Amino acid sequence: MPGENLSRDEARERAALLSVDGYDVSLDLRSAVTGDGDSRGGAPRTFRSVTTIRFRCNEPGATSFADLIAPSVTSVSLNGRDLDPGQVFDGARIALEDLAAENELVVDAQCAYSRTGEGLHRFVDPEDGEVYLYTQYEPADSRRVFANFEQPDLKAPYRFEVRAPEGWTVWSNGAGERADGVWRFAETKPISTYITCVVAGPYHYVTDSYTRTFEDGTKLEIPLGALCRKGLAPHFDADDVFLVTKQGLDFFHDHFDYPYPFGKYDQAFVPEYNLGAMENPGLVTFREEYIFRGKVTQASYEARANVILHEMAHMWFGDLVTMEWWDDLWLKESFADFMGTFGAVGATRFTDAWITFANRRKAWAYRADQLPSTHPITADIHDLEDAKLNFDGITYAKGASVLKQLVAYVGQDAFLEGARRYFKRHAYGNTRLGDLLSVLGETSGRDMSAWARAWLQTAGVNSLTPQVLLDPAGRVAELAVVQEAPESHPEERPHRVAVSLYRRTPDGALQRYARVETDVHEPRTVVADLVGAEAPELVLVNDDDLTYCKIRFDATSLATLQEHLGALTDPLARALCWSALWNMTRDALLPARDFVGLVLRFAGRESDIGVLQMLHAWANSALVYYAAPEWRETGGELLAEGALRELRTAEPGSEHQLAWARFFATVAAAEPDLKLLTDLLDGTTAIDGLDVDQELRWAFLEPLAAHGAADESVLAAELARDDTASGRRHQVRCLAARPSAAVKAQAWAQVVESDALSNALVEATISGFDQPSQRELAAPYAEKYFAVIERVWRERSIQIGMDVVRGLFPALQDRPETLAATDAWLAAHPDAAPALRRLVLEARDDLARALRAQACDLAAIAG
What is the pLDDT of residue 39? Predict the structure, then answer.
């Protein structure tokens, strides 16, 4: 048996052999608050799981297997025949021999509570000692909770029953009720294993309802619920969650013509969650950080609304119709990512969400698509480890960008009609790429195969650059768009783009005066309709962000942006230009100091708060990773000075003021700046309108800890003010950030040599460990990193393994020697787990990119 992994070939073989009629799952969770078992050492804390699976086999006498990851199995019964657990269970699979045409499998197991966010996660709230449970399964962790056939195409209905401690409430996908001490839940529709769900504990629960009357007179009523830990209840703005939920349900009903099919709609905000959210039908789970303990900007509320709508879109794209195997993960994630923004613009107050998409989501895609691990949107997923890593910027944001391009290509009406046919044709079934292309071809009248080959089955990102020739009268004689592709992925694609011309008006505004939509599909495409136009100061080749590409500029356009970027009045066009300039910085075409200079000069005039916060993140990355080491101190001083200036001049109490305060804390390093943060914390200094709430206090404390201005006693005192789950995470991060060799050694040991920390505290420790101001302190751990990562990957869960391998890679040891050490490890470990090698290759690529950008920045000094 190959352990916990499952290959695509094995899944296909099992799906060809078996079909599942239904599950009955009984969980006894009373041990969550009793006993002394613990995963930190000795025997893990466990719960009883009894599963009955009814399934058919189309080849009687054949052999197959069920999936289960559990410390022990008490009994296994197949068709009334008791099997020896020691003989048939190997820790990950249950061997099933001599199957009948119709079968019943009963498995009684002791399954382990999780502290890594995989399976059934158990959290003890430090604030009041209460225990909270929730499940998280994607892609294949339901087998940690009950025996099953863990693959998306073996769908079945489920009936859950749960025994829980007194005073608890339990939720699952279906509606539930408690009788005789047992919570029993309505049978689900046929769904995949990974979207079943159980949430249990003394959660705070708020209810509402949604009603919809359709044109034929039928009425749909959906009970709504929202829940969180009791300690977060004072901060829980459930009314806004329900508002966006109802707006989304209206929007998707309007456009999908298929009523929401899963009964109730609960949304649980849960602690120590590894993801943003998960689309379990009837019981969506979210990370509880979407409940805001302090003041946040509208960008945070927009992000939450986008996630709510993203998960809601999954009720149709993913839950009702599910990909057959993880190759076609994009069939749900790309669509949900697109629909999240599409719905936010069309149904909520966040009408500028496409700006956020262009500036933030696509930045994720551009980075992922230039890594050595880039892959087509329709990927080649060999096994579950591949699948786990495929939840990336390509599957989500590039796929969504390509769908936006598809809408421009076939038209919105044809696109949505294709979706409607897709739902009705494949409801409760599983699909592949061809199933979707078929309906889109029907509704658009276009041959979708060529589009799919170019956009879905190839990797890499194209660059589009304008070329402008002027006639003697100063008008456009020719304007062409040049398309380039990287050597590693030379595919040139058909792009539907808007090419626009901008000039300054007499009052100094940089405004559009000409726009043409055209198809770019050759290496060089002439835009004939712009011939004769007045000479532009700026040519924007992907205005309105219709396609997925990296925008480049001709010399005149770049010079215009360097002098007048802040005068560009259209917020989406401005966001696209910022994104293009950032891509040029990452590609070593624009010195990092020049990008920092643009942020210092123009970010204070940025109206879109989401764009502003992205600029802050990019400017910090430019300083930390891409600036020449010789300039870092100067650049940091310039950023801190500029941030403080904008903080002091921002409108009191505004979200821009808050954003600049957080950015100032990020870049503060000089003694006067640290003194100001200290004074703001103790109240001896105030900035008009700036409320230093608890979350902002922790944001100020981290740089103070990192620079030795806040010791352990200060952090302990702050925890006393905020002895909550959030406070403990903040304190752990700040403790690991202190500039001490002993601190670094302790943090390293806690993460690498021990499994005592939960997933959330592992993440916090790693975040604090590697500080840009402490490169020398962290230097000894570069060699240690390469010595331990294979063992960590082998011994820890895949989530913790990913956190350690990504988070502790010595990226701040940005020297050729680190690159050589990475190459040496890769050369010496050709047989390491492919997923582990992928993570190291990605980190190596980021490091090599940083060194190229530093060389570009250094050349700017010489120039």
Answer: 44
Quote the CA–CA distance of 237 and 226 in Å, as a whole number.
Answer: 10
Rounded CA separation 409/446 (Å): 9
H or E element: which one contains 6?
Answer: none
pLDDT tier at 35 (50, 70, 90 boundaries)?
low
Q: Using 50, 70 and 90 to split pLDDT, how confident is the model at 34? A: confident
The closest of 295, 38, 25 to 162, measured between CA atoms, is 25
- pLDDT tens readout for residues 198-233: 999 999 999 999 999 998 899 999 999 999 999 999
From 740, 645, 662, 742, select the one nearest 703 (Cα to Cα): 662
For residue range 431-464, list pLDDT tens digits in order.
999 999 999 999 999 889 999 999 999 999 999 9
Residue 327's CB is within 10 A of a number of other CB atoms, namely 20
pLDDT in tens, 55-78: 999 999 999 999 999 999 999 999
Element (H, E) at 201: strand 198-201
| Coil, helix or strand at residue 161 | strand
3-state SS, residue 589: coil
Go through 131-148 and write b for each residue having 16 or more CB atoms within 10 A of its CB, e for each that does not: bbbbbbbbbbbbbbbbbb
Q: Is 283 helix (H, G, I), strand (E, B) or coil?
A: strand
Cα-Cα-Cα-Cα dihedral of 294, 298, 303, 305, to 10°? 100
pTM above 0.90, yes or no: yes
**Lowest mean per-residue pLDDT among 25-39, 290-304, 801-815:** 25-39
Q: What's the pLDDT tens digit per position in 383-404? A: 998 898 889 999 999 999 999 9
Neighbours of 512 (CB within 10 A): 18
Instruction: Say if residues 538 and 560 touch (Cβ distance below 8 Å).
Output: yes
DSSP state of 479: E
Inter-residue contact 498 to 487 (CB < 8 Å): no
| Burial track 611-641 (b if 16+ CB lie within 10 A, e otherwise) | bbbbbbebbbbbbbbbbbeebbeebbebbbe
SS3 assignment, position 445: coil
Tokens matching residue 451:
């589009």
CA 624, 630, 633, 635 dihedral sign is negative
Per-residue pLDDT for 41 more than 80?
Answer: no
Cis peptide before 139 (omega within 30 of 0): yes
**To 10 degrees, what angle do helices 694-706 and 712-721 make?**
170
Q: Which amino acid is at 177?
A: E
What is the Cα–Cα distance from 753 to 45, expressed in whole angstroms? Answer: 21
Rounded distance, CA 280 to CA 318, Å?
10
Q: Which residues contact 753 (CB under 8 A, 6 or more apart)?
A: none
Contact criterion met (CB below 8 Å) for 472 and 479: no
Give, to the nearest 10 degrees, the angle between helix 330-347 and helix 238-256.
110
Amino acid residing at 486: P
Residue 37 predicted with pLDDT over 60:
no
| 565 secondary structure, DSSP code | G
- What tokens appear for 621 in the block? 């990355």
Residues 710 and 665: their CA atoms lie apart, in Å, by 14
- C-beta of residue 426 within 8 angstroms of C-beta of residue 418: no
**CA atoms of 160 and 172, how far apart (whole Å):** 8
The contacts of residue 434 (CB under 8 Å, 6+ apart) are none
Helix (H, G, I), strand (E, B) or coil at 253: helix
Report, as an integer, the average pLDDT of 551-566: 98
What distance in Å separates the CA atoms of residue 188 and residue 281, rounded to the nearest whole number?
Answer: 9
Q: Name the one residue in this structure whose structure tokens are 């009791």.
A: 230
pLDDT tens, 257-308?
A: 999 999 999 999 999 999 999 999 999 999 999 999 999 999 999 999 999 9
- The residues annotated with a catalytic role in the active site are 311
d(CA 223, CA 855): 59
